[in-house]
Amino acid sequence: MESLHFVQIDEFYPMDATQLNSFFWYVNEYYIRGFGLRQEHAQLIDATNLGVPEGLTMADVFPNNIVDLSLRVRQTRTNLERRQKETINRVDEFCSQYERNIHDLGGIGFFLGGIGPDGHIAFNVRGSSVYSVTRLTGTNYETQAAAATDLGGIEISRSRLVITIGLATITNNPTATAIVIAAGDAKAPIVADAVQKNKSPQYPASVLQDLDGGRMYLTKGAASHLIERRLEDFCRKETLTEADIEDVVIPIALEHHTPLTKLTAKDLDADRFGHEMLKKTGVAAAELVEQSRLCLVKKIDRGLSPVTGCVFLHTEPHHDDIMLGYLAHIYHLVRDPSNKHYFANLTSGFTAVSNTFCLTVIQNLEKFVETATFQRLLKEGYFNPKSSANRMEDVFLYLDGVAGNSDEKKSEGEARRMLRNLVEVYHTSDMRVLRLRVKELHEYFVTQYPGAKDPPDIQVLKGTIREWEVELLWAYFGIESSAISALRLGFYKGDVFSEEPEVDRDVIPIYQLIKRVKPNVLSVAFDPEGSGPDTHYKALQAVAEALRMYQKESGDTTIKVWGYRNVWYRFRPSEADLMVPVSLNSLSLLHTAFMNCFGSQSAASFPSYEYDGPFSELAQQIQVGQYDMIKTCLGNDFFQRHAHPRLRSARGMIFLKEMDLQEFYEKVRELKKITEARE
Description:
By secondary structure, the protein is an alpha/beta fold. Among the domains are: 6-218, Rossmann fold (3-Layer(aba) Sandwich), CATH 3.40.50.1360; 237-303. The strands form four sheets. Strands 11-10-9-12-13-15-14 form a seven-stranded mixed β-sheet, sandwiched between helices. It has a three-stranded antiparallel β-sheet with strand order 2-6-5, with helices on one face. A three-stranded parallel β-sheet has the order 4-7-8, with no helix packed on it.
């Protein structure tokens, strides 16, 4: 390894290289030191003061880290702009020299990278020239959203530029081995574009097609949109299941924008998968189409069927996962008083709470902490974190403010809960100590660089903010905080490389909750690894192991598992067993409740790369899209003239997968096998 030359492929700009979220720090820690490379053979991008005139700092030249690249071509108006233009010019010179240095080494001989949500490699975002070289440039929304977690919020990543090697830099050496790794179904569409489309700036990774040594190493999920790969797998199947047939028939109907009943044998035979299906089954096209139609109708009927006398344990890795997955279904389930509902928040979710939001919460508390009301409540023991009744009083005060459009009540409710959280986290009700803590927290959230790893007490405090938000949400339905368990599983630490779940630390708390609640139905976020946040997959494994332990002890095999997905990944219609219609009223509730309850998420600091806005709007978009898909397959009349009013009023659709325990274990085992094979 000592003989190798290492080239850092990209870096944010501006970026302090001493920060743990800089790529400079990362490659030094994990590549240079980790692999034993020689420092003098490393070509790195230290952006701490890159291009800045001597005697000045980056903050002097670019206040708030805002770099205006239009200064390259326009006239300057102030001394500050002149310094900024000079700095940008120096960075451009650095980039040119960086490119020359790579060429002097003979070009890149081995490239190893991932692929971004828009198909970028390095920071060559969609639209980058195939002839691009090392440069200082901007990014696009998808890249900014993906970088938001590292940089502390999209508010920061929107304005941050990048220095990146170019697409031509990667491909200049014709003998180069260039490997791009992609894992998970969510990467499948962009992988398919890079492989199946002609080389184009719209598909940056498509430049690998020029290299004999260009390769993509893919998980099965990441390869799932590669037509030839899928067709080969399909042809190898000896028999086809109902789901296999749906996976062929439904896409053909959607491609033709026609109901299933109007598909012809010619339509199916003209499709490569349809042709193979007809040949394999030997069944008439009309019969196969009708079979798929009846499957969809059955799934909708199951989604409409009343559920009564059930104990539900709803689990979620993060505090808004259930809401974004199937809130409208809960809206109907809670109307039957014979059903009981319990909720488990598996992690503290602290990484989704920005320092900026925390600062607003602390500033709000500062307005109330010295008031006579708060002093009296503290003496009375009101802020005891173990008091369920007083916790609910916080919630009711806030929701009274929501109902009455009273910002004052909402602010006081939030301040009460925040002070209660401080009492819990710092184990004191001494007002002198609490005042000092508030002051320290104010200073911390002002001075800590965005994206830095928080110390344990701040992690817990941010987690309590998320727990407060979820209590607000379920209070909409009359569910009290005593029915909500904050498990704060220990594998969730916000590290660069997160830990695997452990039995004693992460599985036993779930098992104990299942044992206490004795659910008839348990829900779980059912995202394959690499297709949603890593936390979803790890929480899924922990829940599965807890269920195994409970089943072994109790002998109960009757529990049903509802797998749900939300904004990160979707079920195909063939995968879903329950299709729940969603009215316009329920879609409205989804958004208003999200914005009222999840204050830390309403500004969308850590959004999806698919949508520039709050998750509630993306969830609505997904549910409407799923409804449009099923409406196309079944036809307008099926919905508009149906006997059930919920179906006539439907404007969205929720997809759920219901499994018995054995099927659930088998599905989880399949995912685990893929992981173990990869390792």
